[in-house]
Amino acid sequence: MAVEAWAVRARHFWASLRVGAGDNTRHLPISAFDHNAIQLIQDLLEARIDARTAAISAAESVTAQINIAESCDRLWCVLISAAREISDTERPGASSSLVNLLGSLAVLPDAINRLDIDVLVPDLDGENDWETKYIKPGQKIVWDGVLWKELPQFGWEMREWWEGVWSCSTARR
User: Fold this and answer.
1) Is the CA virtual torsion 113, 116, 118, 120 positive or negative?
2) Of 65, 95, 113, 172, which cross-links 71 as Cys (Cβ 3.0–4.6 Å)?
């Protein structure tokens, strides 16, 4: 699939998930975060930006959100869908560009909550999985590993894609 066709499809998919409360037929516009994540991957794959620039932009976008885990999950989904749907045959170097993006994310400094409010991550150390834990301003962002060094949740997302549990073509989260 060509990069532009993937981006159009990805935007349509993410917009389809934004259904208005109580009205399953009315769709809201794609969120700014999802639009930016798709645009970032498109720009990377069309060689308008390099992997390091893409990583810095992605990191800034994720850490600007209140729900860090959800933002990471959505970034990983966009990245994985691009890897699955855009072949090196159609876009030479696509796989390398995406791998370089992951590598560039992993060498960024540990993420710190730079917002003036607490941000949310799952409390995986609690008695009940997926309880919420709050990261205070100035604290390092950690839940399933240190953000960015350990790419939290990326392994989960890859495993779900490989097992066919989650895919952008069938998901309705």
Assistant:
1) negative
2) 65
Please name which of 63, 13, 6 lies closest in space to residue 34, comparing C-alpha atoms: 13
Report the C-alpha dihedral over residues 36, 39, 43, 49, rounded to 10 degrees. Answer: 0
> Is the separation of the CB atoms in 62 and 71 below 8 Å?
yes
Q: How confident is the model at residue 173 (pLDDT cuts 50, 70, 90)?
A: very low
Q: How far is Cα 54 from Cα 36, in angstroms, rounded to an integer?
A: 11
Task: Give the C-alpha separation, 122 to 80, whole Å.
Answer: 22
Closest CA to 67 of 137, 121, 134: 121
Residue 136 near residue 118 (C-beta atoms within 8 A): yes
Q: Is the pLDDT of residue 127 over 80?
A: no
For 37-73, the pLDDT digits (tens) are 999 999 999 999 999 999 999 999 999 999 999 899 8
Determine the Cα–Cα distance for residues 65 and 160; give it in Å rounded to an integer: 24
Instruction: Give the integer Cα–Cα distance in Å for 147 and 112.
Output: 8
Calpha distance 42→150 (Å, rounded): 24
pTM score: 0.86
Structure tokens at 39: 């645009």
